[in-house]
Write a structure and sequence with these properties.
mainly beta; 4-stranded antiparallel sheet
Length: about 130
């Protein structure tokens, strides 16, 4: 079983920064890519950013491109989401997720789809006030 544990959420003012972390562990953790999703109250869970472990390729949703940066530390099995210039509309519970190697051939086309990810963390709350 794979466990994903997010941390780093909190309450900040608009324009501030936060860095989320997602630590992966398990008997034999092996994933192709990691993604960050978020879910605001009353809304669907949406894709935010993703990164491929092997080559560091990254993907972002337009709403965060240029403000958020996803990175990974393979030695620590940890993925980060640096969030700068936060806006009230970034308020949500943020989840990290892991995609297995079996989807590597289609990942670049469908990285934003929740169904590609096999494991999910419990989420961390990010609240941005104006």
């Amino acid at each position: 079983q794979v466990q994903l544990v997010e941390s780093g959420g909190g309450s900040v003012q608009a324009g501030d920064s936060l860095r989320l972390s997602c630590a992966a562990s398990g008997r034999t953790f092996s994933s192709y890519a990691m993604g960050w999703f978020r879910q605001a109250p009353g809304k669907e869970r949406e894709f935010v950013a993703a990164i491929i472990w092997s080559d560091g390729s990254t993907y972002y949703t337009d709403a965060v491109n240029g403000r958020f940066t996803i990175s990974r530390d393979s030695a620590k099995n940890t993925v980060y989401l640096q969030m700068n210039s936060l806006k009230p509309e970034d308020t949500a519970v943020y989840y990290c997720a892991a995609a297995s190697p079996s989807i590597s051939k289609v990942y670049s086309r469908y990285y934003y789809q929740r169904s590609l990810y096999d494991y999910w963390g419990q989420g961390t709350q990010v609240t941005v006030s104006s």
